[in-house]
Each structure stands twice: as C-alpha cells, then as structure tokens.
Design a protein that fits this description.
about 10% strand; about 110 residues; Arc Repressor Mutant, subunit A; alpha+beta; 7 helices
C-alpha cells in the first residue's frame, strides 16, 4: 500500500510538480540542506532541526532513501552507528538550494 507522498508523486505528470511532490514536504528541504555539508548521524540531524519529531525525521529520511536522494550507511559497530549522506542524485539538489537562497535573499524582506 502506498502512502500519501508516494501517491502524490505518481499522480504528477509535469517534472516540476513531480519534483515538488518529492522535495516539498515539511522538513524535506531542511534535511537536504543539513546533509549538503556532509554525512550526519540521526541525532545530529535532529539537533540541527529544532522542532522536528523523531518520527517525522525517520519518515522523511526513509522517503529520501527510497528515491535515492539520501544514502544510509550502517557501520558494524557496537552500538551500531548509522550515517546519512546525499547520493549523487541528492548532490544535484545543492544548486536548487543555492538558487532558493539567492532568490530569497534578493526578494524577501527581513522577518518574512
């Protein structure tokens, strides 16, 4: 059974709509932004994203992993160590984030 996010992505025909359905969810771009500086553990991501619940973070990471935007690496240690990083597909979104930052800086007033 597909979740709402998967259903929305499949229903899109326009590449822009499909992309927004994939990365437009709450917290998704923030997670990608945090991973753009390098690999992070779950706890590091949670700490850098105040207000995100563990359930939401886990869900978003799973969605991004399924779409091959984020890679999950499990290290065979005790206790287990898991790190998340952007894949090459995910790295391609850095330019999108930079463009959004530039546009926001140029066009949005402070305190928006």
């Amino acid at each position: 059974m597909k979740n709402d996010s998967e259903q929305k992505i499949e229903e899109c025909y326009c590449p822009i709509q499909k992309t927004l359905a994939l990365i437009g969810g709450k917290w998704t771009l923030s997670i990608i932004r945090e991973l753009s500086s390098g690999s992070k553990r779950f706890s590091q991501l949670q700490k850098s994203l105040p207000g995100i619940s563990p359930k939401t973070l886990s869900s978003r990471l799973q969605e991004l992993e399924k779409e091959a935007i984020v890679a999950k690496q499990v290290f065979p240690e005790v206790p287990p160590r898991v790190e998340y990083s952007l894949t090459s597909k995910g790295e391609g979104l850095k330019k999108v984030l930079q463009d959004l930052l530039k546009w926001g800086t140029e066009n949005l007033k402070e305190g928006y």
